[in-house]
Amino acid sequence: MGIKVMVTGGSGQVGSELVRSLLNIGGIDDVYAPSSAEVDLTARESVLGAVTSMKPDWIFHVGAWTQVDSCEDNPKRAFAVNGLGSRFIVQGADIVGARVCYLSTDYVFDGASDRPYLEWDPVGPRTVYGASKLAGEKEMRTQDLIVRTSWVMGEYGHNMAKTLIRLAKAGGGCRFVDDQIGTPTVVSDLVKALVELFMDSHSGIFHVSNSGETSWFQVARFVFELLGEDPDRITPVSSSEMGGYKAPRPKYSVLDNFALRGSGINALLPWQESLSGLVLKLSAGS
Predict the structure, then answer these.
(1) 129 is catalytic
(2) Residue 126: which CATH number?
(3) For residue 247, what pLDDT band results from cuts at 50, 70 and 90?
(4) Is residue 233 part of a domain?
(5) How far apart are CA 54 and CA 78, in angstroms?
C-alpha cells in the first residue's frame, strides 16, 4: 500500500501548491486536503475525527490563521487555531501513528538580530501571531518536522507579488518600507523542500527560505523593473512613517538555512531568480 497524506489548509497559498505537488509523487496513494468547513482546527472532535477516519501516514499541518493584524485583535482565536489546533493534530497523529510537518514563521523571533537567525537561536515573538505560531511549534514531538519560512509568495492566495503586479500596472507612485529586512520565499521552492525533508524522514527544526536578503522597498523596485515599469515610482519610507499596522513587523527576520545545508539538501535559489519566474508567470496570466 502507498502513503496516505493529509494536508491542513489545503486551499491556502502553500497548501494548494503542496497538494498539487504531492499528487505527482509516486508512492503516494491518497491526498486528503479538507477545507476549514470540513475540519475545524479549533474543535478537537472535528480534528480527531478527520485524522482517525483517514488514518494518514503523514500530516502536513500548514493550516493557520495568518492575518497578523487581525490576530492582535483576537488573540484567543489566534491561539485556538494556531496553538490548540496544532495540539489536536498531534493528538490525532499519536492515535494513528502519523508523522507531522508543521509550517511555522520568522515571526517567532523578535527581529532585533544583526545576523541571520539559526534554527537554535532563542525565540521571542513580539506579536500575537508569532506567539501563537510558537505555541504550535511547542506542541510538536521529537519525530515531527518544524519548518520556519518567511515572506511567502506563490501562485495561489493573496501575496505581495500579486500586489506589486497590480500596482505596477495601475500607474502612479507608491511607498514601501526600506527598514524591514528579510527574504522572499517562493512557494514552489518551499514546497519542494518540504516534501524532500519529509520523504527523507528528517525531524526537528529547519529554516527554509530563498537565498539572500533584501527590503520590501528593494523587492518592489525589482518587480517594477522586471515588468518594464519605472522603479523610481516607488518611494522608500520607514516603518514608523508607513504606520497603519497593529502588529509590529520584524526589523530583521532573515533565516539562516543552516540545518538544511548541513543535512545535505541544496540551498534554495536566490530570491531574485525564483521571484522573477513567479512574477512573469503571474503577470502573463493576469
Answers:
(1) yes
(2) 3.40.50.720
(3) very high
(4) no
(5) 26
* Residue-by-residue DSSP string for 102-168: EEEEGGGS-S--SSPBPTTSPP---SHHHHHHHHHHHH--TTSEEEEE-SEE-SSSS-HHHHHHHHH
Integer-rounded Cα radius of gyration of the chain = 19
User: What is the number of domains present in the chain?
Assistant: 1
With vertex at residue 279, the alpha carbon angle to CA 276 and CA 282, rounded to the nearest 5 degrees, is 145
Catalytic residue among 32, 107, 117, 129: 129
Q: Is the pTM of this model over 0.90?
A: yes
φ/ψ of residue 93, rounded to 5: -65, -40
Cell numbers representing residue 131 in the block: 506567539
The verdict on residue 169 lying in a domain is: no
Residue ranges of E strands in 44-98: 58-61
In a domain, 179, yes or no: no
Going by DSSP bridges, is the β-strand pair 174-177/152-153 parallel, antiparallel, or unpaired?
unpaired
Residue 223 lies in a domain: no
Structural domain boundaries, residue 198: 3-158+184-210+254-263
Contact by Cβ (8 Å): 253, 181: yes
Q: What is the rounded distance in angstroms from the CA atom of residue 39 to the CA atom of residue 235? A: 43
Per residue in 20-45, pLDDT (tens digit) is: 999 998 889 899 999 888 999 999 99
Q: What are phi and psi of 49, to 5 degrees?
A: -60, -45
Per-residue pLDDT tens over the stretch 180-208: 999 999 999 999 999 999 999 999 999 99
